[in-house]
Amino acid sequence: MTKSLKQKDFRKVAVAIKQQAGRYVKVIRQRLNSAKLHNSVKTRMRAMVGRSCLTNTEQAFVQQEIDKGNKELGNLLGFENGEVNKHIKIRISPDTAKAMVANCSPSTDITTLATLILNHANFPVRQFIMNENLAPEVFRDLAILFRKVNKCTSFWLIARAKILRPDGPLISSLFDSITDEYIAKLNVGIGVITYNRKDYLAKTVDAIRAFTKGDYQLVVADDGSKDETLDWCEQNGVPHTSCVNKGVVRNKNRALYYLNDVKKVDVLILLEDDCRPNKENWQKEWVIAALLWGHINYAHKRIIKKEETVVSGTGSSTAPYLCKLVTGQCTACSKEAMDNVGYLDPRFNGYGAGHVEWTERFIRQGYNGTTEKQWVYPAINTGLNSDDAPTFKNPEQLEKNRALKKEISKESHKRAAWVDANEKADFLKEIETINH
Question: Which of 161, 183, 205 corresponds to the end of one domain?
Fold first, then answer.
């Protein structure tokens, strides 16, 4: 009797499980059939970077929009009388892209429209991505779409989604993975400047080698040290200069020039010898911040702890601090920003004002930061620690540098790493001493 009841209970459970599974399969089939029907009606867009003529799906999308009454879209793309010709080469300007988004109807598939713009943009797509306030989900879906086609575009798209929705778990996960894929393709340069601080330099270079993931270019710019700095570099196989002392600005320019003009890196990270990595893959946040904002500084703990110094931001690569104070212990720049802004002004002699003027020049040219009411500077502090070694500074030089900064405070044009032809010849000879 007991055995029979157990068998009946078992059959009931089995039947219930089977029925539940059947209902589940039915729902899945309905969803699949609905998706197939939806896809047969909806135009499916594909990322086709480098194309100039409309694809069949793009042509169908534009025609559908025109048929729905969005005739302005056809006009913006150069089609007259609502007739779409897929053989006409399409190149979309920034103004046209803005107008296309502004004139779309509530029923327009904004993801499809954005894909069309990105496929045929005649301008850096990041300009469109970083300036359009589309929903984070749109940027996320576009990032997935472009992931296999163009790593750079995919990175900018998912970064924009992350900026708009910093705590979204799916966006954050995609941001990490897509960023890793993109950074792996980049040439990253790390420069360290030093002067008579061999022990600090050794700790910093050792930390760079221990914590930096992937391939990178490394150089030490030594400003004529009299201690064992050069011997240590040679013994440890570190590419380095061996030049006469000319001050911190010229020394920073040596490292920057070697990485930017000789090694032609995509992102430059410049460290002073008392500021060093303290966690694995530390450079990732610095590379991201440099790419997104063009120029980023180190948010020293004494800066971010000082009352009312941090104006905004969280200190992450996608939401850096904006600070009223700045230090030059670590700086990262994108190659594009470096090529637009140039080097530290070589007229600054010794310690003081040179790095601040350089940072303000980036801001004047439109990179992150502001001059409204008071200068504020972009900064992060991820992955670094500072020993704050004694600074080599001269009060008379410092006063002269401050006066020079005030004199050139309105200037924003690109600077060379030298003042005249004679300095250029000497500078390039110094670069040639670096053991490649």
Answer: 183
Q: d(Cα 284, Cα 190) in Å, to the nearest integer? A: 12
With H, G, I as helix, E, B as strand and everything else as coil, classify residue 92. strand
Identify the domain boundary among 183, 206, 234.
183
Residues 152 and 227 grouped into a single domain: no
Between CA 17 and CA 12 the distance in angstroms is 9
Do the beta carbons of residue 139 and residue 132 sit within 8 Å?
no
Roughly how many angstroms between the first and final C-alpha of the chain, as a whole number?
89
- Token representation of residue 382: 């991820």
Q: Nearest to residue 256, comparing CAs of 243, 271, 246, 236?
A: 271
- Cα 418 to Cα 192, 334, 344, 347, distances in angstroms: 20, 21, 9, 8
Closest CA to 269 of 250, 291, 249: 291
39 domain-assigned = no
Q: How many domains does the chain have?
A: 2
Q: Is residue 206 part of a domain?
A: yes
Helix (H/G/I), strand (E/B), else coil: 43: coil
Length of the chain: 436
| Structural domain span for residue 301 | 188-432
The alpha-helical segments, DSSP class H, found in 79-197 are: 94-102, 110-120, 125-131, 136-146, 151-164, 169-183
Look up residue 315 and give its two tokens.
Answer: 């200190």
pLDDT tens sequence across 332-374:
999 999 999 999 999 888 777 888 999 999 998 889 877 656 7
Residue 257 CA to residue 242 CA, distance in Å, equals 15
Interacting residues of 400 by C-beta distance below 8 A, sequence separation 6+: 349
Confidence of residue 175 (pLDDT cuts 50, 70, 90): very high
382 & 276 share domain:
yes
Q: Is the alpha carbon torsion for 323, 327, 330, 334 positive or negative?
A: positive
Q: Specify the pTM.
A: 0.84
Closest CA to 249 of 414, 393, 406: 393
**94/229 same-domain check:** no
Burial class (CB in 10 A: 0-12, 13-18, 19+), 390: exposed
Looking at residue 358, its amino acid is W
Question: How far is Cα 335 from Cα 326, in angstroms, rounded to an integer?
Answer: 21
pLDDT tens digits along 269-301 = 999 999 999 999 999 999 999 999 999 999 998
The pLDDT, as a whole number, for residue 50 is 63
